[in-house]
Amino acid sequence: MSLDRRSFLRLGAAGTLAAGLPSCRPRDGGSPAAAGQPATPAPSTSTAADHTIRIGPGLVELSPDRIIATTLYNGTFPGPLLRLKEGVPVTVDLFNDTDTPEQLHWHGQRVPVDVDGAAEEGTPFIPAHGHRRISFTPGPSGLRFYHTHNVAGPDLRAGQYGGQVGIVYVEPKHEPGDYDREVFLLLKEFEPSFSRGGDMALDFLAPAERDPKLESAGESAMKASLAKKMPHGLEVGYRAFSINGRMLGHGEPIRVRPRERVLFHVVNGSASEIRSLALPGHTFRVVALDGNPVPTPRDVPVLWIGTGERVSAIVEMTHPGVWILGDVGDDRQNGMGIVVEYAGATGKPRWIAPLKSTWDYTAFARSGAPAQAPDQTIELIFSKQNAEIHGFNRWLINGDAFSMTTQKPMWQVQQGRRYRLRMRNASDDIHPMHLHRHSFDVTSVAGRSISGLTKDVVMLGGYQEMDVDFTASELGLSLFHCHMQLHMDFGFMGLIDCR
Ligand SMILES: [Cu+2]
User: Fold this and answer.
1) Cα–Cα distance between 375 and 305 in angstroms, integer?
2) Whole-angstrom Cα distance, residue 76 to residue 61?
3) How far does the centroid of ligand 1 lie from the alpha carbon of residue 81, in Å?
4) Dist CA 287 CA 176 (whole Å)
5) CA-to-CA distance for 196 and 189, rounded, in angstroms?
């Protein structure tokens, strides 16, 4: 194993400074009440947990000359694939071998506050060099994942910028199984750095209609801040891209046979990026979004996957050769791809750029059936204050940035009632909006009403409007936030209090 100079320096820094930098802290700033509280009683050694996850430093070999030192689960990237069974209780030992209290979030599962893994909700931290044992009943079934929920703020070694991501598959009681085998793919970037202005695609969502009122509000806020000589806020870019922890060309290829039907379970484990995937000569039949079967499975040439989203799609292997399954943008050249190799095929992996296509959630929904009316509609406006916090944009929900100090709930809901979150985006960015401990139904996209589409993250387009409905089923606090680390850490969160 060889290290290039940069990796060696990173490794050195990680090795000597460990995780003790001030910005590498839990969201509450490490208040005694949460971070410093005594660890959950030591595990009983008489019974073994069903799963053990150890959080600690380690190395990711993206390629022989690109080795990253970061924080990992069980020393591997991705973390171990956990196959759980819907409705069958499970016990997990969480060990934290780092110097920083940690939160491990069970993204997409309906779990209690003390399990979910969000300090804002009240989940106890896994203390530094400490342990927690948690028990929960997995569900709903489908493709889920787990990741750290620590704040990173300006520290690009913390939070989800590092290597704390793993896939969970909650096996349903009845698996439809219209495929020959499953392949799990975790998309993740490494070597983050700050930049002014991003290069992420923003024009792939359909319907594309913008709300003129939102647009003029956003544009005039932007003009006003530029007139005050405020620059654009800092963004995060990356130099290394990987699928399952390997850069394109450096991992094992996906070996397939002609006519085989492969079910790809794709997880976007990025801290901040939206990803695309195409496989030349093949189409994806999208069967589930965020692990939930869609009412209308559809064939698409390109998958678009927001931060924290998952797509499950079947590909029928009808085009023998050696192909690149990869990002349609430049990031493919920097590693965001994996080789698909048919049995007996030889030669260099080939890439053919797909025709430009759009991503339309409404295509996968039930057509012609209106959504159930909610008991109450909660109006939300999302806005941006350019470069307001030390060069970072500040993000507001209804005029307020989430306060890490007060952590005051923004909305009160009643258990069993159904709520519509009417999200209006007065910024030009796409925001992958996520609700903890619940799933929601997407019921309107840019003015188009739909039903039957159940998700837990959804990309809200720039200057667009979207409705998502959820039944408040879980008592206590549930976090609602943009899944981009850079946005949530700088205000883009709110707490829903269910009683
Ligand atoms: Cu955002």
Assistant:
1) 31
2) 10
3) 27
4) 11
5) 18
Distance in Å, CA 308 to ligand 1 centroid: 12
pLDDT at site 44: 53
- At residue 81, the pLDDT reads 98
Question: Which residues of the chain, if any, have pLDDT below 50?
Answer: 1-43
First-residue to last-residue Cα distance in the chain:
54
Strand partners, 173: none
Give the pairing of strands 284-289 and 310-316. Answer: antiparallel
Angle at 217 between CA 211 and CA 218, to 5 degrees: 90
Span from the CA of 425 to the centroid of ligand 1 (angstroms): 10
Q: How far is the CA of 395 from the centre of ligand 1 (A)?
A: 8
208 alpha carbon – ligand 1 mean position (Å): 18
Contact in structure between 218 and 427 (CB atoms under 8 Å): yes
Rounded distance from Cα 489 to ligand 1 centre (Å): 10
Q: How far is the CA of 197 from the centre of ligand 1 (A)?
A: 14
Q: Name the H helices within 175-232.
A: 212-227
pLDDT at res. 199:
67
Q: What confidence score (pLDDT) does residue 176 get? A: 67
Predicted local distance difference test score (pLDDT) of residue 472: 98
Cα of 432 to ligand 1 centre, how many Å?
6
Q: What separation in Å is there between the alpha carbon of 307 and the centre of ligand 1? A: 9
Ranges assigned E (strand) in 351-492: 376-389, 392-397, 411-413, 418-425, 431-435, 440-445, 448-455, 457-460, 465-471, 476-482
Give 487 Cα–ligand 1 centroid separation in angstroms. 5
Centroid of ligand 1 to alpha carbon of 492 (angstroms) = 7
